[in-house]
Design goal:
The protein is α/β, with parallel strands linked by helices and 431 residues long. It contains 14 helices and 14 strands. The chain has a six-stranded mixed beta sheet, with helices on one face. A three-stranded mixed beta sheet has the order 8-7-14. Strands 11-13-12 form a three-stranded antiparallel beta sheet. It starts with a strand and ends in a 10-residue tail after the last strand. The relative contact order is 0.15.
């Protein structure tokens, strides 16, 4: 575990205690638009990514400094299909830019909730693909910690008193492939790609021994956050179709952008639309519904066996090598996944023979609830300024008279601990 803003604490047993220190704010006030411009420029000088990704990373970094004013903290998911795509480099930069950052390539549930409860650090988790998939308890803690009130519970002391531990805080995760579904749904996903030789020659190379420029920028962010945190808009305007959890992911960043001003409120909203439109990871169930809808487009009935064959034949989909065994999905596998949607195979007589299968009418409710009616290109989704600061500076090519605006749904006002009960948590000694 490697950390920034950490000094060694007391050595009273195994290891040493962790003491996290917030960065010292810059010595003079900082202008918001210039600050974000400088931050994006610095990110671009080290990593190969489009402007949407860089903008999102920049505002998530500001969000980490302003965590005390947020109702949700979207997980920043830095992902790529292969090694060598600069995922770890992004965490290196965040380690110097975010406040009280602490870095790990593996972590236990106990470490997460004890650290968050004690210090509310910016937790940077690398190589999640090597350990997170089968750690359900850890995923629960990371899931609960994306919302104010999230907590873990355990029994403490000789009397087994039930204690709650705060899990709310900023978390960035880097790894190959998608996060588990529930955590993925709470994340802003940045899909990295490997730099070409030409691109590698044009960018700088991070050296952890020489970070004075980055450390100064961290202090500037800390100063801006100190001066402006109380002014953040808690209910910023949303692009059309941003509601529910999607709105929760972006709301804290939009509020910051509106306070920053300049062209950044519009730039961030445009970036969010781009990132959401290219973010295509789906749960197995939703992906299955999507493919079944396409298969049933020209018919109203299909046997279970025929459906399995057609699914397996689809290129670029997971059904030919599905599940842990990497085998073709079976008729029973289809039935198990559709059961959660209230859909079960039926008997139908064809040519004097009974066949089990599915009728298109069985899927209508699930299609309506879980699949989008239309695919919408990013250029077709308009933006609208909020009444907040900087609204007159929105940058968008969409004419004002075509703008669609909706108020976001409010987050649930949970009282007390709105989290996950953690059983069989490792003892303190594991820390």
């Amino acid at each position: 575990m490697r950390s920034r803003g950490v000094r060694k604490g007391q050595n009273t047993g195994q290891g040493q205690s962790v003491v996290l220190e917030a960065p010292e704010p810059w010595h003079e006030p900082v202008e918001g638009p210039e600050l974000v411009t400088e931050l994006v420029k610095l990110l671009r000088s080290y990593i190969v990514a489009d402007s949407s990704a860089l903008t999102a990373i920049a505002f998530w970094t500001l969000h980490a400094h302003l965590i005390e004013f947020a109702s949700h903290s979207p997980r920043l998911n830095i992902t790529a299909p292969e090694k060598g795509c600069a995922k770890t480099l992004v965490l290196d930069l965040l380690g110097h830019l975010a406040p009280k950052s602490i870095r790990t390539e593996n972590v236990t549930t106990a470490v997460v909730f004890r650290l968050m409860n004690a210090s509310q650090p910016t937790l940077l988790i690398d190589e999640y693909d090597t350990f997170l998939t089968y750690k359900e308890e850890l995923r629960g803690a990371l899931n609960s910690g994306w919302q104010v009130g999230g907590c873990a519970m355990r029994c403490e002391g000789d009397g087994n008193d039930v204690r709650t531990f705060n899990t709310f805080g900023a978390v960035a995760l880097a790894g190959i492939g998608a996060l588990p579904g529930t955590l993925h749904d709470r994340s802003i996903t940045i899909q990295m790609k490997r730099a070409t030789q030409t691109e590698s020659a044009e960018i700088g190379h991070f050296d952890s021994r020489h970070t004075s420029e980055i450390d100064s920028l961290q202090r500037k962010i800390a100063r801006w956050a100190t001066d402006h945190g109380q002014n953040l808009e808690s209910d910023p305007s949303m692009p059309a179709d941003f509601y529910g959890r999607k709105a929760d992911r972006w709301r804290p960043l939009f509020g910051i952008a509106d306070e920053v001003g300049g062209h950044w409120p519009g730039a961030l909203r445009e970036a969010s639309i781009v990132l959401e439109s290219i973010e295509s990871e789906e749960t197995d169930g939703v992906m299955l519904l999507e493919d079944i809808r396409a298969i049933l487009a020209d018919g109203d009935w299909i046997t279970s066996t025929n459906l399995a064959d057609k699914l397996v034949s689809l290129e670029g989909r997971p059904w030919a090598e599905f599940g842990r065994q990497q085998k073709p999905i079976s008729t029973n596998g289809i039935a198990r996944r559709l059961k959660g949607f209230g859909i079960a195979p039926k008997q139908r007589n064809q040519g004097g023979v009974n066949h089990r299968g599915y009728g298109r009418e069985q899927f209508q409710d699930a299609f309506e609830r879980y699949l989008p009616r239309d695919s919408v290109s990013t250029s077709a989704i308009p933006l609208h300024p909020s009444g907040g600061k900087g609204s007159s500076h929105f940058a968008t090519a969409t004419p004002v008279d075509r703008v669609a605006l909706q108020k976001s749904l409010q987050p649930t006002d949970d009282a007390g601990c709105s989290g996950v009960a953690v059983d069989d948590v490792p003892e303190v000694g594991e820390l």
